[in-house]
Design brief:
Strand order of the largest sheet: 1-2-3-4
Strand content: 15-25%
Number of helices: 6
Largest sheet: 4 strands, mixed
Structural class: alpha+beta
Helix content: 40-55%
Shape: globular
Radius of gyration: 20 Å
């Protein structure tokens, strides 16, 4: 992580915007004139902001950290599937490692959150494996099933761009 490089202290509104996002500022004017100014402020105070964020949410990182400071993308750990809609479609999702798995793998946990990261990463792995196992039959059935349309959806479970492939 980068050290704080700015002497200018952040206001409460700036801190909330940088670690909590716009959703916590509803009805409050954005303290940053531009997105670039917010990004610069975040990078100038990244260690301080991550420390504040992890006090309330250990094992996770603020959205801007993922966009600006994460050293690499999250790895894909498997695929999952679900049937939805009429006509029925099998939707296939890539499952990416969780925040805790990522932070543990790269050794990025802060001292006060390392044990929490270990526990969360283990629980996340178990949950992902159950989802992958439960999806195996759908994945095997989906490709050859006449009644289904296969739909691949984005990079993360539950979101992203979709591309429909009719079968």
């Amino acid at each position: 992580m980068r050290k704080t490089t700015s002497n200018k202290a952040l206001s409460k509104a700036e801190i909330v915007r940088l670690i909590g996002g716009d959703n916590l500022l509803s009805g409050i004017q954005n303290p940053f004139v531009t997105e670039a100014a917010a990004n610069k402020a975040f990078l100038s105070h990244v260690e301080e902001l991550v420390a504040l964020y992890t006090e309330r949410d250990p094992g996770r990182r603020p959205e801007l950290w993922w966009a600006l400071s994460a050293p690499e993308e999250r790895r894909v750990v498997g695929k999952a599937a679900m049937i939805s809609g009429l006509p029925q479609k099998v939707r296939v999702f890539e499952i990416r490692e969780s925040d805790s798995q990522y932070l543990q793998r790269l050794g990025l946990g802060l001292p006060h959150e390392k044990s929490i990261i270990r526990e969360q990463a283990s629980a996340d792995s178990e949950q992902q494996q159950r989802l992958i196992s439960n999806s195996a039959a759908l994945l095997a059935m989906g490709d050859g099933a006449v009644f289904c349309k296969i739909e691949k959806v984005g990079e993360d479970l539950g979101g992203g761009r979709s591309q429909r492939l009719n079968r």
